[in-house]
Each structure stands twice: as C-alpha cells, then as structure tokens.
Amino acid sequence: MKKYATNAKLITFIYLIYVFVCCGGFVLFSVIPKLLNIVLPLNESRPVKLPHQAYYFVDEEKYYVYILFYTSVFGSIATMMAIAHDCTFFIYIEHVCSLFAVAGFHLETLSLNDCNDANNRLDDRKIYNRKIATSIHVHWRALRFAKILEDIFCIAFAIQMLIVTAILSITLLQVALLYGEFNETVKNLAFIFAQVIHTFCFSVQGQRLIDHSLQLSDKIYNSSWYEIPAESRRLLLFIMRRSMQPCFLSAGKLYVFSLKNFSTVNVINKFMLLYAPLKSLLRILAFILKVMQSSVSYFTVLASFQ
C-alpha cells in the first residue's frame, strides 16, 4: 500500500508541474512581444498578443497589464480546479490498484503458513478456506471501488472527451486560418500537444486498472495451489473466473481508456513490425493519430464554411 501511495504522490506532483509549465508557457507567448519591445525595440511597437482571443470593449494596448492579470488569475483558478479533479482521480486509481495488489499477494502466498497457523488446532482445510475468504473480501472491495469510480466518472469523462474533441477541432481551424504566423501556429500546436498528453495520462491510468484487475489469475498460477486441499482449491476457480472480466474506465460507456485504443492504427502497427527500435515512438504517434481522428473530421466540416 505504501508503494502505491508513493506512486500516487509522484504522479500528482509530476502532473502538477506539467500543467503549470504548459500554462506558464502559454501565457509567456503573450508576454514575449512586450519583452522584445524593451530588449529589441523597433521603430514601432509590436502588436499586443493576448493569451486567448477575447473582446473586453476597452483599449487592449492601454489596459494590457490589467487584462493579462485578469486572465492569469482566473485562468489559474480554473487550472487548479482541473488539477484537483485529475489528481483526485489519479489517487483513486492508485488506491484501487493497491487493493488488487493486496488480493493478489494473499492468493500468491496462500500455501505459506505462519507461526500462528502452525499452532492452530484447526485443520488445513479451514485454514485455507479462511485465507481464501480474506482474499475474496479484499477482491470484492477492489471490484466495488472500481465500479464506484466508473459510475462517478463515466458521464464526466464523456463530456470531457466531447469538449476536447471540439477544442482540438477549433484549434486546428485556427492553425489553418493563421497559417504563416509563426507565434500563433506554435502556440496552437503546443496547445494541441498538451491536450493529447492530458488524454494520454487518463489512458495510462485506465490501463493500470485493467492490468491490475486481470493479474489475479496469474497470481494464482504462480502460487503453490497444488499444495492446498482439493475442497479449498475449487474456491479459487470462482476468483479466476471473475478476474477474467477486467475493470475499466470509460467515457459514457463508448470509449474505454486504455493504451490498446491508442495503438490500433494499421499503418503504425505495420511499421512497428519493421522498425522494432522505434516501437515506443510509433506507439505515441499512433496515439496522437487516434485522438486527432475525430478532431480532423470536425475541422474539415468547419473549414468548409469558410
């Protein structure tokens, strides 16, 4: 349990740094023209660049500092809310994975008797049945917690994926309309990359949940199951049967968060077979293509109205 608590702490810290670096870099693009006017002045001032396009019905050049302060403060508040939601989700996933790990440890060490069991007057069958019952209870707690997570985050993830798809489509449209403006193109592409990485983080956690929910069968295989009585051995079949059904996280029951869904592009899979050293890079490329497939479709529709 301490191992997974440490993992949760590390994941949340890295995610926090990543989000703030991305947000800070996004705001920095707006400050660069002002800094260049001081460091490398021109005959005329460079145009003002806001973090995002908005109309405040005031002179943006005159009230630039106030607008930037307003955008930074309220943007930070919204970012902290998103970070709190995501980090809480990551901690929950690590907790349910730790429950599956505890259940697997009990099953893997099922045939090992400690001193208390050796001095116990109960026969071996009752001892093993008690251990199996403890493992089943821990497994049930993990399954119940995973089901609660799916029920809580299912609708929220569906709405989030719709928003991400719409935002990526609009951002791609802006890249096409602002083609030739280097700063705007880099900023929009960086935003797209940040959204892709954000979705990738959820997919990694979803894959961890799937892997941990399926590992109980392997734990039983690796244990000395042949040393326990036949009556107790039959109880393990129920656990093995249930562990064949993975727990997963989905977006509206339509999209399952897993790494497999990010590496199903046929062209990329063929390249993986040919270029094994580039397998990791190609998997990331397949993930990007998978996520942006819907966004490109909507981008094409939006571009047709121009």
TrEMBL record:
Q: Which UniProt keywords apply?
A: Cell membrane, Membrane, Olfaction, Receptor, Sensory transduction, Transducer, Transmembrane, Transmembrane helix
In its UniProt entry, the species of origin is given as Acromyrmex charruanus
Identify a single GO molecular function assigned to this protein: olfactory receptor activity
**Looking at the UniProt record for this protein, which Gene Ontology cellular component terms does it annotate, in alphabetical order?**
plasma membrane
Q: What is this protein called?
A: OR9A protein
Q: Where are the transmembrane segments?
A: 12-32, 63-84, 152-177
Q: Which InterPro entries match?
A: 7tm6_olfct_rcpt
Bilayer disposition of the protein: Multi-pass membrane protein
Q: Does the keyword Lyase apply?
A: no
Localization per Swiss-Prot or TrEMBL: Cell membrane
Q: Name one GO biological process term.
A: signal transduction
What Pfam families is this protein classified in? 7tm_6 (PF02949)
